[in-house]
């Protein structure tokens, strides 16, 4: 086990050294200004505001900057020693502080020749989940960055090429990648914590409210789906929602095939609502190896809502496998369209924008309603940490 830990650390160090390797310069070239590079970066990522990947709920477009800075401040004030893992959250604190693989938001300066010059990512000091020898694994979102080449363009400026980067946005308790343990079947205990039950009831209430009918106006007609899709794309900066569920190893050319394969695996491994099962092993996707395993489900929205259907991450586990800690959703906030009773000048329904929390993963965490104080756990020296798969 200790050899595997050493190998893991050496592998991690090697990756850091490779990523820190200098990008060679060409003395006859000049750098384009940051405005040009930022514009291209935004274009490659469909204008994605990466701060949204780290804010799980309760923000608006008007206060996103304030909320994100507050989260960074909390990360800095609650930062833990590399040798310790600590649950510092309770009550309604952000999920990252209540997780059994707690993480903080860290700013990382990129090596020279890379744009953006710095990026935020989710960093956990825990190689294993608190109270368990299961692995803490990153949940990644793939972005495009820019890397300087040695070539000049006709204006004497460096040519930058696009490059894919895995951005860690959270951490999840999971079956180790290299482990060959067979699927573990666990029946949910009858004495689940009251906060977990309250969480389930609240979730059910939200679903009932969202299923309420949208009233019609008989003098209006519906705009066609092309118009609505165009507005939906505009509201969400062209976000391809499938990318939120694919943790690694996809390209723009095979994203459709990869996503369909993931949905197919979800359907074939779907579990009974009364059971939680870890069906993953080896290099299976994180969603099947998690201690709050989830599947990708297609949900038809009520009439008057666009898109008419959405995919989301669904877990049948109210609590983490092997623990009474809560399974809580990691959310990404999107904009959807809701029909009003008003008509526009063309006799078409007016649609208004509405915010929706989209579940993209599930995390073992201290229950929101729980008032347990921060639990301090020292990581054992003989923990088996899997070698990261890149």
From TrEMBL:
This is Uncharacterized protein. One of its GO terms (molecular function) is cytokine activity. Residues 1-20 form the signal peptide. Keywords: Secreted, Signal. It holds the Pfam family IL17. Belongs to the IL-17 family. InterPro entries: Cystine-knot_cytokine (IPR029034), IL-17_fam (IPR010345). It is found in: Secreted. GO terms for cellular component: extracellular region.
